[in-house]
Amino acid sequence: MAVSRHYASTSTPQLNDPSLFKSLAYVNGEWVSAKSGKTFEVTDPATGKVIGDMPEMDKGDVEIAIKAAKDALSAFRKTTGRERSRMLRKWFQLIMDNADDFAKLITWENGKSLTDAKGEVSYGAGFFEWFAEEAPRTYGETIPATIPGNRVFTIKEPVGVAAAVSVWNFPLAMLTRKVAPALAAGCTVVAKSPGETPFTSAALAEMAHRAGIPKGVFNVVTGMKNSPEIGETLTTNPIVKKVSFTGSTGVGKLLMKQSSSTLKKLSFELGGNAPFIVFDDADLEAAVNGAITSKFRGSGQTCVCANRIYIQSGIYDEFANLFAEKVKSFKVGPGYEEGVTHGPLIHDRAISKVQAHVDDAIAQGGKVLIGGQKLPELGSNYFAPTVIRDMRNDMKLAHEETFGPVAGLFKFDTEAEVAALSNDTDVGLAGYFFSKDIQRCYRIAEALEVGMVGINTGLISDPAAPFGGVKESGFGREGSKLGIDEYLTTKMITLGGMGQELQNSG
């Protein structure tokens, strides 16, 4: 594993279009500060230096945004699906035309490598492209009535004002995955940007402005210290009819409790603890590469990344050695530097949790094959990509989401054993396994208690695929043709008096 030694040389990124860097919130088509004048600082996780500040908004500011969304709703919900499709398509194209700048912003405030950030831009923009195609296709149904003379049919209608609350690990994609289907359905949106990464959200709002999204249809509120107050305002205000949240299970439970006061429609994508299983009949090279992709994407800071890697005993040692060799090829450093594959973690709290999981594993007999320590020579938020073998099910990593670059390798013998271990958790977002046995593929895919399964792949995210979990990983689906349904209600219409005989008179 290479460590970049040029930390001190990292400079502020130069945007091709500096006007994409906004230090304001976006409400009712205008760039605004908090009414209080308060701001919060956003820091670069690679350097610890201040990037800039953003408005520290409060309940009053959020209520203004909610009113703007309400006022815009009456006209926007009457637009045709084809009209909304054209808006989304233009928004998509503007993001892609400015993809390099979006990637720079993501790397700057999130820390991921520039290569990784570019991948996120393409993925995130893809939701606008996908839902531009779904907007004209919110079909109702014709239903055969049981009462003679009645005709029954349904239509789909936008649920109303929607709140979108996203997280920092995918500053663009986590927001577009919510906003795109909401607008495609005819809803208006108040989005709460992540406090750690608000500048990407602001750039997204600038693209909405340029795309001609009507004022009030898409609003972005900002805050760090006041995030709980903002969340409570969005979940308790009766004007807001829908809340979509991505984040921790604990926060999701709180938002769900708050939302019960007005019985909002909800979709939550919460914590994960993904198992990654390699059977002894797997293509070993493909399995190693898949595990690398799944575990270390974004330095392990993804909700669907492999958290527990189970290797069948017959290939355990060989897999462990090959896997560790792959990790040695990583280059850790500031995301902008040439050849860097993995950047810093988001903040010191993330570092502390990763260190606690590593220390616990070592104390209980885990053997570190590579990594296992902080990299202070790079900065306070760097942790070496780590592989630990001889893991046991009573270690912290087995039951807690690490959200960092630590791969724990567990040994198993039978299908029944690994299925039980995989399902021994309160959450169920994603699961992965590698095998060449088609019958085994069906057995394990059906046995895993998760919302998404990757078979012989470590990468499952796709705008065309339904994304979401079961158990305490949440409910509802994002992406795919199912994603737009989260922002629609079904209205049944019965037309009576239709059973008359045909008339003979002219």
Automatic annotation (TrEMBL):
Q: Does the keyword Transferase apply?
A: no
Q: Identify one Pfam family in the record.
A: Aldedh
UniProt enzyme class: oxidoreductase
EC identifiers of the protein = 1.2.1.16
- GO BP annotations, alphabetical order: carboxylic acid biosynthetic process; gamma-aminobutyric acid catabolic process
- Write down the InterPro entries for this protein, in alphabetical order: Ald_DH/histidinol_DH, Ald_DH_C, Ald_DH_CS_GLU, Ald_DH_N, Aldehyde_DH_dom, Aldehyde_DH_Superfamily, Succ_semiAld_DH
Q: What GO annotations for molecular function exist for this entry?
A: aldehyde dehydrogenase [NAD(P)+] activity; succinate-semialdehyde dehydrogenase (NAD+) activity
**Active-site residues from the entry:** E269
Keyword annotations for this protein, in alphabetical order, are: Oxidoreductase
Q: Which GO terms describe its cellular component?
A: cytoplasm
Name of the protein: Succinate-semialdehyde dehydrogenase
Upper taxonomic lineage:
Eukaryota, Fungi, Dikarya, Ascomycota, Pezizomycotina
